Amino acid sequence: METMIFYGWIMKPIYCQLSEKIEQYIVDNAIRGRMPGTVRLSNELNVNRVTLIKAMHELERRGVVTICGTKGTFVNDKQNRRTRHRVIGLVGTGLEGRQGQSVIAELNRIAKPFDYRVVGIIFEENMFKENPGLLLNFPVDGLLFRYSTLRREQEELLRRENIPMVSTARRDDCPWLDMVDCDIEAGYGELLRYLKSLGHRRVAFVTFDRSPEYRPYLDCVRAMFERELGRDYDPDLFYAKEFASDVYRKYGEKYREKCSIQVLQYFKSLKRFPTAIVLGMDIWGELQTELKKIGFRIPQDISLAAIQAKEMVVDPNLSAVVYDEREMLEWGIKRLIDRLMGKQVTPGCHLIKMYFNRGATCGPANNNVYFHQSFTKKVSI
Questions:
Q1: Which has the closest alpha carbon to 318: 290, 280, 371, 352?
Q2: What is the pLDDT of residue 87?
Q3: What is the pLDDT at residue 377?
């Protein structure tokens, strides 16, 4: 049975009394970073090692130190002292599926040596908007935001609460934020130069709109298209007119198909149809199907190039710029652990290299095909 002592009317276990003594020891010795080992401490303080370990766990619970298994125990900065749960939250969509579970399992493998575990938190736009403080209800020490899920309301709240966070999408308005993203300037640039070498001048970009925090991404892509295509750049070929969530609410599970039809109807309304389309994997299959329905051959009449994650590559014949999302998430987890251990690191954006797979869905431009004659067939949505 644990020995107890009395403090006035409050009864405290010995390890709690010892934890206060250790906290004073930290102050007196101006300890920062790694603490002395338990054997040395138990000798210096003349206490039982088992009780000492319990006292250290009490200090961790109070946010004074972070215990990182065989790596040692580290003193936290005062401004970062919070109750520790040894849990990191991964915020994103698609985490409930097989791929999402695989991602979480891989991140747990990385976090385990530091005595942390990773849990998934499903991002739901409306729920987070209605309750900006929702994330504070989760017993986590830090948060890793997948794709563009870190909204301004949550970012400001978490910062006030001194909860470390990492975003896997760039935010130009947060110089203090730890970020990791793919190097789109290099990756997209290589793709556009390749399309130009095939004679393509009317290159379209299709994506969903972004929230204000991440709209600079669209501005960046527009600037790259303008720079690489020069006088051939046509702003009308940049399609980012709706939010994915809005299209889903409107059409349900058929939103990809309906979106693809809308995109093609829009391009048909222009004087000249694009000879190549660059798009994300969100509607890749559906857009390809709709093009074939109206008589377009790929790549003879039109070329398609995808932006996709390495984990989602389903066909090596696709022409695609590929990024490694797991490498991005791994960097994010390691940066969070550094922060939680009190390591002083400079915030910034770490870029992951992309590679271009030429595939078979891009071919020489057919500039004589403005839009296929069979496109006059009525398509309803």
A1: 280
A2: 94
A3: 40
SS (HEC) of the chain: CCCEEEECCEEEEHHHHHHHHHHHHHHHCCCCEECCCHHHHHHHHCCCHHHHHHHHHHHHHCCCEEECHHHCEEECCHHHCCCCCCEEEEEECCCCCHHHHHHHHHHHHHHHHHCCEEEEEECCHHHHHHCHHHHHHCCCCEEEECCCCCCHHHHHHHHHCCCCEEECCCCCCCCCCEEEEECHHHHHHHHHHHHHHCCCCCEEEECCCCCHHHHHHHHHHHHHHHHHHHHHCCHHHEECCCCHHHHHHHHHHHHHHHHHHHHHHHHHHCCCCCCEEEEECCCHHHHHHHHHHCCCCCCCCCEEEEEEEHHHCCCCCCCEEEECHHHHHHHHHHHHHHHHCCCCCCCCEEEECCEEECCCCCCCCCCCCCCCHHHHCCCCC
| Residue 24 pLDDT greater than 50, yes or no | yes
- Contact, 128 vs 158, CB < 8 A? no
Q: How far is CA 191 from CA 197, 199, 220, 264, 340, in A?
A: 10, 13, 15, 22, 39
Q: Is 2 exposed, middle or buried (0-12, 13-18, 19+ CB in 10 A)?
A: exposed
Q: pLDDT tens-digit profile of 83-95? A: 788 999 999 988 8
Measure the CA–CA gap between 214 and 237, rounded to whole angstroms.
20
Token couple for 108: 């747990």
Q: What is the pLDDT of residue 8?
A: 35
What percentage of residues in the chain have a pLDDT greater than 70? 91
In angstroms, the CA 21 to CA 34 distance is 18
Tens digit of pLDDT for each residue in 350-373?
999 999 999 999 999 987 765 444
In whole angstroms, give the CA distance from residue 143 to residue 118.
9
Residue 308 or residue 1, greater confidence: 308
**49 in Cβ contact with 43 (< 8 Å):** no
Roughly how many angstroms between the first and final C-alpha of the chain, as a whole number?
72
